[in-house]
Amino acid sequence: MTRKIKITSDSTCDLSEELCSRYGIDLVSLHIVYGNESYDDCKNIFPADIINRYREKKELPKTAAVSVGEYAEVFKKYVDDGYEVIHINLGSSISSTHQNAVAAAEEVGNVYVIDSQSLSCGTGLLVLKAVDMVNETELSAKEIANKIQELVPKVVTSFVIDDLEFLNAGGRCSTLAMLGANLLNIKPCIEVDNSGGASMTVGRKYRGKFDKVASQYAREKLSQYTNFDPERAFVVSSGVSDEIVNNLCEIVESLGVFKEICTGIASCTITSHCGPGTVGVIFLTK
User: Are the C-beta atoms of 60 and 34 separated by less than 8 Å?
Assistant: First the structure.
């Protein structure tokens, strides 16, 4: 009997509609909440809406996790159709989404939930790795889930941010820090700690125009590693020009290491935290 394995994730993995369609990945949307208005991330609200609403009204949304019931409904649909499900979540330190998925999996059965301990395309890389294992091996769902769990510490996720306004508006950095960074033209690198459920720390602080900073960041981050997983890398962005994104893709490509260089747009959830003017290079190591 042919095994049936379904790979799912949440909207914060920042995989494009094209990639999800190509590989049959089902994404469950987190919720974007403005007062009494609730939307589903990247279904009926999109990152540009977040940015435009803030520019017009100085209003940022709250974000809400996927509930246990919502997850159970998604998982049950596939399990009832004979599938085992491997679900890969946004890091557990960022949202209760992971804990809710675990609770739903216990309720439904035949579901393996993985804490990516990452965000954005750091999670997305693990999702695509799981798809590769389904398509290219005869491993069981449990074996694939175990192998993906082993890859979690090998994801390198970081971003450089042009402006701290969204972080300040969301209470994630002080007004003093924002004004100081703007005055000194500082662009911080945010690094994701994938041993702590995706806690984030500030790495190097760059100075200068954002296009030059983005290029410097990408070259320096890539130069820190030699043991890349060659399958694919991502350049993910929010409110960044095509020119900057294309330039970072060329920098990644110039290594001559990766078979595929993918681009991603930060979801509403990610954008509401970091704001426009954010770009990152994300990859796996061996």
Answer: no
Q: Strands 228-238 and 278-285, how do they pair? A: antiparallel
pLDDT in tens, 54-74: 999 999 999 999 999 999 999
User: Of 179, 182, 188, which is closest to residue 274 (Cα–Cα)?
Assistant: 188
**Secondary structure letter of residue 173 according to DSSP:** S
Angle formed by the axes of helices 121-136 and 141-151, nearest 10°: 140
DSSP 117: S
Q: How many residues does the chain have?
A: 286
Task: Give every residue of the chain whose pLDDT is below 70, as ranges.
Answer: 1, 166-184
Contacts of 272 (CB under 8 A, 6+ apart): 32, 50, 60, 61, 63, 166, 170
Measure the CA–CA gap between 159 and 189, rounded to whole angstroms.
Answer: 6
Put simply, whether the predicted model's pTM sits higher than 0.70 gets the answer yes
**Residue 35 to residue 96: CA distance in whole angstroms:** 20
For tokens 């890859």, name the residue: 151
